[in-house]
Design goal:
By secondary structure, this protein is of the alpha/beta class. It is built from 15 helices and 17 strands.
Length: 432
């Protein structure tokens, strides 16, 4: 039976302060629910003097997270520092080796070093929990490890970055360009000063790597994920696809195929009639498909003080209950090697945007190239030229075809001399 838990919190940024507030405000409720509690005994951050809007006077202060990680004054090390190397990785390793449970919101750390850390945790019979690392306040890991654990998951997908979803939503609603909306997102605090990890799809890929392991019982393999960001999406693409009945979303997806498991992050067209198309602004959503349940979707806030702190404390209370489970649902020794399905074997529908030079035979030549690679065209739309008699915008929607055929056809089309700029491609994804 686990008694009271003593918590050491490393990192007192937005989420760390949120955890302090939540734990301190819920002491009476914890005791009523569990007849014991989880209490903060020690903290660590870079600056002791900084005003964080919450009193830390009664907690032992550590200047070094690594010292906190092995302190005899804590049972649970709560890592909220961030980053996949350096102090975060060192302190989590030290905590696990010293028999401390670890709760973290650090998706990069788990995506890059999760298997290594899981081995240490399981060898020392302690928990390593990271609900907050994947989708903020959405309890997706709890659902996968408990509610749908009996099911064979075949497909998992999600909108897992609020910054990108806000940008794409605003571009669609207001017809503005990517750079303009990104600047607004930065001004509102939705995007970092350096937004590369967000808009480049890396943040989503970190989260997807974790979900893939949980869903399919495989080793975490971030490096095998195909990644595209949203930087190349234009207001023109959003307008065109809107007219065709689609919304553009940055999705992280993993699914079983006859060729292995696909892991990919990229912008995708989703039908406006689907539930995931309606997830707007900074909200996140995760979709799970299994043989018994068909499709279910969880939606909520994916970041911020409250949602993320809620998931962190939820993990702490699981430990308080004595519920110590394998880190990736499947014991780490039984995780299967990840079998990568090559991206060029992916099959689906495609949106293709072409700025075609106004030359005789140009459209016929493009259609011939498509036929050369057995690509069936569902629709070809010649946009209004708006008075431009030099370039004609053309939108093509294909039937299902392979990535390799699309890429080969477009390479030839790009080199045929009929385009004023390179072709743009967005994959089409189907959801209930």
């Amino acid at each position: 039976m686990v008694g009271n838990l003593r918590l050491g919190i490393a990192g007192l940024g937005t989420v760390g302060v949120g955890v302090v507030k939540l734990v301190e405000s819920r002491q009476e409720a914890f005791i009523n629910m569990f007849n014991k509690t989880a209490m903060i005994t020690a903290v660590n951050a870079r600056s002791k003097s900084r005003d964080r809007g919450v009193s830390l006077d009664k907690f032992e202060w550590f200047d070094d997270a690594r010292e906190l990680a092995k302190s005899s004054s804590i049972d649970v090390f709560v890592e909220l520092i961030g980053g996949d190397e350096g102090i975060a990785r060192e302190s989590v390793t030290i905590a696990l080796e010293n028999g401390k449970h670890v709760v973290t919101a650090n998706k990069a750390l788990i995506a890059k070093h999760g298997v290594e850390l899981a081995k240490i945790a399981e060898a020392n019979n302690v928990a390593l929990m990271f609900e907050a690392a994947v989708a903020g306040g959405i309890p997706i890991i709890r659902v996968m490890s408990q509610s749908v654990i009996a099911n064979e998951i075949t497909h998992i997908a999600g909108i897992m970055n609020g910054t990108c979803n806000y940008i794409l939503t605003t571009m669609a609603k207001e017809g503005r360009d990517f750079k303009d909306v990104l600047a607004e997102a930065q001004a509102k605090g939705y995007a970092e000063a350096d937004p590369t990890f967000d808009v480049g799809g890396i943040d989503t890929a970190h989260k997807l790597a974790i979900l893939t392991s949980l869903a399919f019982g495989t080793e975490v393999d971030f490096d095998s994920i195909y990644i595209e960001g949203i930087e190349e999406n234009t207001a023109e693409d959003i307008k065109n696809t809107d007219n065709l009945g689609f919304n553009i979303k940055l999705l992280g997806m993993a699914l079983k195929t006859p060729n292995g498991i696909e892991q990919r992050v990229h912008p995708a067209l989703v039908a406006k009639t689907s539930s995931i198309a309606a997830v707007d602004d900074v909200n996140n959503a995760v979709y799970i498909e299994s043989k018994m349940l068909d499709g279910i979707m969880l939606e909520g806030k994916g970041a911020g003080e409250g949602p993320t702190a809620s998931s962190v404390v939820g993990d702490i209370l699981q430990i308080l209950r004595g519920q110590i489970e394998p880190v990736f649902i499947t014991p780490v020794a039984k995780l299967k090697p990840y079998e990568k399905a090559r991206m060029n074997r992916h099959e689906g529908g495609y949106y293709i945007a072409l700025n075609v030079k106004n030359k005789v035979g140009a459209l016929a030549a493009i259609s011939e190239r498509m036929a050369e690679f057995d690509i069936s065209i569902d629709s070809l739309i010649q946009q209004k030229d708006d008075g431009d008699d030099v370039v004609i915008p053309v939108t093509i929607i294909t039937e299902e075809t392979s990535e390799s055929e699309i890429r080969a056809a477009l390479k030839k089309i790009d080199n045929d001399g009929f385009l004023a700029s390179h072709s743009r491609v967005i994959r089409i994804e189907k959801f209930a």
